[in-house]
């Protein structure tokens, strides 16, 4: 077996679209997916914009009240143990399986694994704990735990699809689904699995997003068109977002044998932590620079081989500056000048799902031959001097891509995607 | 077993009452309202049957299907332990009663379930439900 990991299926429930065509259009035309929101019915809150998920109504804790597109038919036995973001995830997986030409019946022979990432459902957890307090601990919804704690995605998806390979969840905040994808790449490269589903998902509600306002991490710009502006001097925080993305990785010969569509090769990855602060990136981006260097070393590449970097940049003052400095160290200082953009200007920042979402965007860009531009970038931060930050989408093949992610505690992850010529 | 009465969930924390009001047929909601006012056991029977059918995993049965009292929840209607636990929680929250694991294990048929809920509602008058 080749032990080469290729991307053969993608599914999207995102702020910029709920299918591949809509997402591609947004990335090409720089159409943002942000909208006005009023969290907790409180008009005086300064946070007024989020990356909302359209076509879904999941603001009730009861699955019976949810509304979602009829094309996804889910039985009550599946719905009853889902959180709202679990519903998004089911829909994204269904899309990815269809995109890859895989029947769900093929997932149960032990050669397919599943790695997931979300922060759990703070919304449902709060609901169930409030009930527990109200009845003084005398009873509780038996589905409350598996629907709401971190891990709910892997519990539910593994059971629904009968997956018998490696199953697990990753919790590294905004780097979580990047760890999930990295470990999935390794499972294929090590010959442990021939197929991996990688899923990231988050909710767009007060319980998931608003706590970041207490950290002063959220944008208070009330204009959905300009609130998320990575690398721009006027950026003032990130815009919370949610949804779900599923990326299917497959061993290349297996994919070829069944005639699967191949978007790209996921050639390797690297990770390194800052060892610096619980919530703030290293001021010089040292951990992220190391993660990029390790990803390059893992794939035997030099910086000048990279054509495009999908940056983590979330539109926070400190984080974007840190990433810009990391990029300068790895690329500018070695004479390399890849295109760099953050697609979060379009999507907002969907926390745990950001890494796999952006890897999927990179796979789309590679397949369709374009480089997404930096939405809302009008005056780049001075820390970006020397970086090539296109402000419009370029109609050129990106070549080899790096996909960056950073999470709390200074976790940094970088994936390498290569064009597939198999 | 403790002799203290079970604690009723206030309406904004009572998922079961909200689900009944939003998703169950009018006649079931009316039977529930009547039961709270008059405590006629036949009205509780209507609600229990509707809840049981709502929680049964096998949805291939016709919506008009009425199970015989002798039908087994697991053997005939496809319930697994999770679905039974989920149904029991719904009943506990809706009627403000407390049901132990031992009691759940003794309920095997549709008739057992109805008789058990009747007995429970007599033994533990659900105070405060109309609040």
Structural class of chain B: mainly alpha
Described by its quaternary structure, the protein is heterodimer
CATH classification class of the largest domain in chain A: Alpha Beta
Give the helix proportion of chain A (percent range). Answer: 25-40%
Structural description of this entry:
- The complex is a heterodimer of chains A (422) and B (131).
- Chain A has 422 residues and is of the alpha/beta class.
- Chain A folds into two domains: 5-257, Thiolase/Chalcone synthase (Peroxisomal Thiolase, Chain A, domain 1, 3-Layer(aba) Sandwich); 268-418, Thiolase/Chalcone synthase (Peroxisomal Thiolase, Chain A, domain 1, 3-Layer(aba) Sandwich).
- Chain A is 32% helix and 18% strand.
- Chain A is built from 14 helices and twelve strands.
- Chain A has helices spanning 20-29, 76-79, 84-100, 122-134, 144-148, 152-161, 176-189, 206-209, 211-214, 252-257, 286-299, 317-330, 344-347, 354-368, and strands at 5-13, 34-36, 49-51, 112-117, 167-170, 195-202, 243-251, 264-273, 306-310, 339-341, 400-407, 411-418.
- In chain A, α11 (286-299) packs across α12 (317-330).
- Chain B is an all-alpha fold and 131 residues long.
- Chain B has a single domain, classed as ACP-like (Non-ribosomal Peptide Synthetase Peptidyl Carrier Protein, Chain A), CATH 1.10.1200.10.
- Chain B is 55% helix and 0% strand.
- Chain B is built from six helices and no strands.
- In chain B, α3 (41-55) runs antiparallel to α4 (81-95).
- The chains are: A alpha/beta (422), B mainly alpha (131).
- The interface between A and B is medium-sized, with 19 and 21 residues.
Q: SSE layout and pairings?
A:
The complex is a heterodimer of chains A (422) and B (131).
Chain A: E1 5-13, H1 20-29, E2 34-36, E3 49-51, H2 76-79, H3 84-100, E4 112-117, H4 122-134, H5 144-148, H6 152-161, E5 167-170, H7 176-189, E6 195-202, H8 206-209, H9 211-214, E7 243-251, H10 252-257, E8 264-273, H11 286-299, E9 306-310, H12 317-330, E10 339-341, H13 344-347, H14 354-368, E11 400-407, E12 411-418
Parallel strand pairs in A: 4-5, 4-6, 9-10, 9-11
Antiparallel strand pairs in A: 1-7, 1-8, 2-3, 6-7, 8-12, 11-12
Helix pairs in contact in A: 3-6, 7-14, 11-12
Chain B: H1 15-23, H2 26-38, H3 41-55, H4 81-95, H5 101-106, H6 110-123
Helix pairs in contact in B: 2-3, 3-4, 3-6
């Amino acid at each position: 077996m080749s032990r080469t990991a290729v991307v053969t299926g993608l599914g999207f429930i995102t702020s910029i679209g709920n299918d591949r065509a809509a997402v591609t259009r947004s990335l090409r035309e720089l159409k943002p997916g942000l909208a006005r929101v009023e969290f907790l019915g409180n008009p005086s809150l300064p946070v007024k914009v989020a990356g909302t998920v359209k076509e879904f109504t999941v603001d009730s804790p009861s699955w019976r009240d949810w509304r979602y597109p009829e094309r996804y038919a889910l039985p009550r036995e599946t719905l009853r143990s889902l959180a709202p973001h679990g519903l998004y995830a089911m829909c994204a997986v269904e899309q990815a399986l269809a995109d890859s030409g895989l029947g769900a019946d093929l997932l149960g022979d032990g050669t397919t694994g599943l790695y997931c990432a979300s922060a759990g459902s703070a919304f449902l957890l709060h609901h169930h704990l409030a009930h527990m307090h109200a009845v003084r601990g005398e009873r509780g919804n038996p589905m409350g735990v598996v629907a709401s704690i971190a891990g709910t995605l892997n519990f539910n998806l593994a059971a629904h699809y009968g997956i018998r390979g490696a199953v697990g969840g990753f919790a590294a905040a905004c780097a979580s689904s990047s760890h999930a994808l990295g470990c999935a790449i390794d499972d294929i490269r090590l010959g442990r699995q021939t197929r991996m589903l990688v899923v990231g998902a988050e909710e767009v509600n007060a319980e998931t997003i608003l706590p970041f306002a207490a950290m002063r991490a959220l944008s208070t710009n009330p204009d959905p068109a300009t609130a998320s502006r990575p690398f721009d001097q006027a950026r003032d925080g990130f815009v919370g977002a949610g949804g779900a993305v599923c990326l299917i990785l497959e061993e290349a010969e297996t994919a070829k044998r069944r005639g699967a569509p191949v978007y790209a090769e996921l050639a390797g990855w690297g990770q390194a932590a800052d060892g610096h602060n619980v919530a703030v990136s290293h001021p010089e981006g040292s951990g992220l620079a190391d993660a990029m260097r390790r990803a390059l070393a893992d794939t035997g590449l030099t910086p000048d081989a990279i054509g495009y970097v999908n940056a983590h940049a979330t539109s926070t003052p400190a984080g974007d500056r840190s990433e810009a400095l990391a990029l300068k160290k790895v690329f500018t200082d070695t004479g390399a000048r890849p295109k760099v953009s953050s697609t979060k200007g379009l999507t907002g920042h969907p926390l745990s799902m950001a890494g796999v979402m952006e890897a999927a965007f990179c796979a789309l860009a590679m397949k369709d031959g374009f480089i997404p531009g930096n939405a809302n970038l009008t005056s780049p931060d001075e820390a970006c001097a020397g970086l090539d930050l296109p402000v419009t989408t370029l109609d050129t093949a990106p070549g080899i891509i790096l996909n960056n992610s950073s999470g709390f505690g200074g976790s940094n992850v970088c994936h390498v995607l290569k064009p597939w010529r198999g | 077993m403790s002799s203290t009465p079970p604690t009723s969930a206030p309406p904004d924390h009572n998922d079961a009452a909200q689900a009944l009001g939003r998703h169950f047929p009018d006649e079931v909601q009316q039977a529930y309202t009547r039961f709270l006012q008059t405590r006629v056991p036949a009205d509780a029977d209507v609600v229990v049957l509707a809840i049981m059918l709502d929680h049964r995993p096998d949805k291939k049965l016709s919506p008009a299907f009425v199970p015989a009292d002798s039908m087994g929840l697991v053997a005939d209607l496809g319930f697994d332990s999770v679905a039974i636990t989920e149904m029991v929680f719904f009943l506990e929250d809706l009627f403000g009663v407390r049901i132990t694991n031992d009691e759940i294990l003794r309920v095997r048929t549709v008739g057992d379930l109805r008789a058990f809920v009747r007995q429970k509602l007599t033994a533990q008058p659900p105070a405060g439900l109309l609040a």
